[in-house]
Amino acid sequence: MAPSMSSALTPNSERRHNYQEVVQIPSASTSRRRKTYRGGFHTSICDIFRDPHSRTDCCAVACCGVLASDRNRYLLSGERPPLWRRVLLYFVIPFLFIGAIGYFTVDVPVVEDGEDGGDGGDGELTMKVPPLGILWSFYAYIGIISIWAWWSKRQLRTQIMTKLYEEWSRESGQELNQQQLRAFLRRHNLDLSRAHFSCSCCYTHDNYFYSERDEWNSQSLEGGDNNECPDEDFCTKFWDFLSQMFWCCGCWCQCCGACAIAQEEREVNRLTRYEQQEIDYITFQPYSEYFPSIQYLRENQIKSPWEHLQATSELSRKILRNVAGVLILLILFALSDIDSNFTWENMIVVLLTLGQAFFIEYLVHWRWNRFNLSFDSVAKYFGPFDLSLCKACGFFLATPLAVMFEMIVSTLSLIVGMVIANIIVESNPDLTNELASDPKAFAKDIIENYTGIFVFFQFVNAFCVAALVEEMVKYFSYRMVVTPDLNPRLRAVPLSTNVSSEEADHVDERRNSKKSTGSGITVAMVSVALGFACCENLLYVFVYSPPSIGNEISVLLVRSFFPVHPLCAAIQSIGVCKRDLEGDKRYGLGRIIAPAILLHGTFDFVLMVAALFQQVQNIKEGNDDDSTAASPEKVESVDLATQLPALVAGLVLVVCGNLYYVIQSRAQTRRLGAMDNEELSGIVN
User: N- to C-terminal Cα distance for the chain?
Assistant: First the structure.
């Protein structure tokens, strides 16, 4: 029997009410108790990324844990973060400091030893010297803000520990004693202090303890599924390695209190009801206020862009409004004469860079999958770029994490390279003398005579620094974004209680099927990759390329012609669907990102080695920047001869990656379709 028209046109308010009735879940406090850890927590502070399926730990790492702390505070006390004060303190004032430092920086001439230093002489160099007063004031301001953030997070942790003590008092049948509570907090004062240090060596373990909670712990240590640890995968082991690699004492290293924030968020999720947790980050809008409208559009196959825009959440609308506002400001800035380095021509390049990402997003989402993933979710998943424009989250979700981890890995690689170079120099007296007399000639000889070593380091740079880090960051950026669209339990909620039980059993396949959810996962991961690639393209176009319109457009065209980031994200989605939809437990993080790392790393390695051999060829042909440089025609011929094979190889890799994805995706679609048919036949029978 088809749903009636009256049920299909149920007002939003009634649909929200029905939604809330259906998703009611028993309180988490009724779950079985487990052993406790230092401070009364039910999970260890060392358990970050222990469960590879947890989104909580990902959110604790993003944006220095600010968003996760805000959510914890809101769930505990209903307190919303002071938005305008935060924008002023964390964005406006720092940007004013940075602008003042740049404006008052002066160029001071620096003369090399042995040179005359005359006007226009080769020996005269300049060094930018910032104003020390403003610079030290900026450092002091950052220190004050860091201390304030630490104190605020300490207060939140104190609140959580107080809740835990109250819970223990109720479950043990004792009356809450304020004096004992204060003694309990004083006993853990050191833990409270060091849990949220900007960079600290936390305790190596925090096993459950026996003090005034002996009885509680002895009851909690009884067997049960809650004491079972989830299977560890590549994510868990890799995080353990990163956290302990620098500390011979075996202690747990954390940055910006990420481990403590993740522990607190896990505890808050345990203390609150599930429907309370189903809210957006930043705005704290419940899913029940906007998700029924998204379901209504999906069930009725409404294609109007305006209707889809109206069904977005408050967070997505803020993103879109702020993006539009920032673009308008950039256009006005480009049309003015404030900065001659950013003109309307540069603004056109910016719009072309955005347009390339938006066009691919249009094809992937709106053209083919608008009902598999909502426009609201796309706005959030593309947020690794969009949110950067509205100064809310953005670059802090993907690009800064990639930059931070790439700096760590590249620094380790650089240290190893310096050690190897020192061994080579010490074993060759001629190179030692050349290094002392002519460093430029020394560098050329090292590159020309030890090319194999440089090829090895390019391999490390391509696969470890670039591919591994960036693919992991894109995966975690996908995990960080929490949306009801990919929650099978919420997608199955009927829009109206007027639907009969027989009709409810035959919920629209478009809304409930694994095939539809799989397509939504792919669109979500590609959206994250497009946001990340858009940021990266802007950096390559305006920072890494020579400052000319021709160079900027050529770099943009080349990078647009090789969409490696969205392709690798689509390949990752195959593994995510195998794990989350097909139930293949063999697919942890390592198996999910391995094919993407192989494609991404090989692509980067080919381009890097081509650039290296071009540099070696320039040295051999005399095309390097010295007095023996060859003619421009000869340089151009060398560039074309070296770059063309690399570009062809890159194109072949992209084509092979597309073929791999198409084959795997079609096979997975057939498997998911078979699973949907099996479930549907079970319902009918």
Answer: 16
Query: Do the bridges between strand 124-129 and strand 106-111 make them parallel or antiparallel, or are there none, so unpaired?
Result: antiparallel
Residue-wise pLDDT tens digits, 283-325: 999 999 999 999 999 889 999 999 999 999 998 998 888 888 8
DSSP helix/strand/coil, 343: coil
* Tokens matching residue 286: 């419940």
Contact in structure between 611 and 544 (CB atoms under 8 Å): no
Residues 6+ apart with CB under 8 A from 497: 18, 21
DSSP, res 286: B
Q: Are 467 and 600 in contact (CB under 8 A)?
A: yes
Q: Count of residues for the chain? A: 685
Q: Which is nearest to 374 in space by CA: 489, 527, 477, 504?
A: 527
Torsion from C-alpha of 83, 86, 87, 92, nearest 10 degrees:
160
The conformational region for residue 33 under phi > 0 = left, psi -120 to 50 = alpha, else beta, is beta
Closest CA to 63 of 90, 93, 99, 94: 90
Q: What gap in Å lies between CA 249 and CA 236, rounded to an integer?
A: 20
pTM for this model (two decimals): 0.78
- The rounded distance, in Å, linking the Cα atoms of 327 and 36 is 51
DSSP string, 596-661: HHHHHHHHHHHHHHHHHHHHHHHHHHT-SSSTT---HHHHHHHHHHHHHHHHHHHHHHHHHHHHHH
The answer to whether the CB of 631 falls within 8 A of the CB of 603 is no
Which of 518, 520, 485, 529 minimizes the C-alpha distance to 360?
529
- Residue 451's alpha-carbon distances to 245, 547, 612, 615, in angstroms, are 30, 30, 8, 10
**Nearest one of 152, 141, 157 to 82, comparing CA atoms:** 152
At CA 381, angle to CA 259 and CA 466, rounded to 5?
65
Tokens 């993407």 label which residue? 596
* Rounded Cα gap, residues 221 and 346, in angstroms: 64
The DSSP result for 154-199, as a single string, is: HHHHHHHHHHHHHHHHHHTTPPP-HHHHHHHHHHTHHHHHHTT-SE
φ, ψ dihedrals at 286, nearest 5°: -65, 145
> pLDDT tens across 639-660, in order?
555 677 888 888 899 999 999 9
